[in-house]
Amino acid sequence: MIGVYDWEKEKKQQLVLDIQMSWDNQRAATTDDIDDALDYALVSERVSAWVAEKPRQLIETVAEGVATLILNEFGVQNVEVRVAKPGAVPNAKNVAVTVRRSVFDSPFG
Q1: CATH number of the domain that 50 lies in?
Q2: Which of 3, 55, 84, 99 is the most exposed place for a label (fewest CB within 10 A)?
Q3: Which residues are catalytic?
Q4: Range list of β-strands (E), 31-73
Q5: Buried/exposed code over 72-81 (b: 16+ C-beta within 10 A; e: otherwise)
Q6: What φ, ψ does residue 22 adopt, rounded to 5°?
Q7: Domain that holds residue 73
Q8: Do residues 79 and 67 touch, judged by C-beta distance below 8 A?
């Protein structure tokens, strides 16, 4: 469940996630072996499970959480997560937020 307003909490809201990841994929590209590549199905399963595990109010929370999860669990160096919520406001196809995070980001800014 996602949403701030009561009507959002009464009906399951759809989220659309776009995730871009970067890491050293040279070995996978060289060997052309799936065992040397990032398992996108596993990433998708893990992200879906995390999103579903508890209600959240904001798409910003989802975007930050997914970015942190991917950086911490899948060995990627950089991640960009876009979370869109179709039909969230009148006269717009959707609302969305994008976060970009890196293992090289300093927690001190």
Answers
A1: 3.30.1130.10
A2: 55
A3: 85
A4: none
A5: eebebebbbb
A6: -130, 140
A7: 6-102
A8: yes
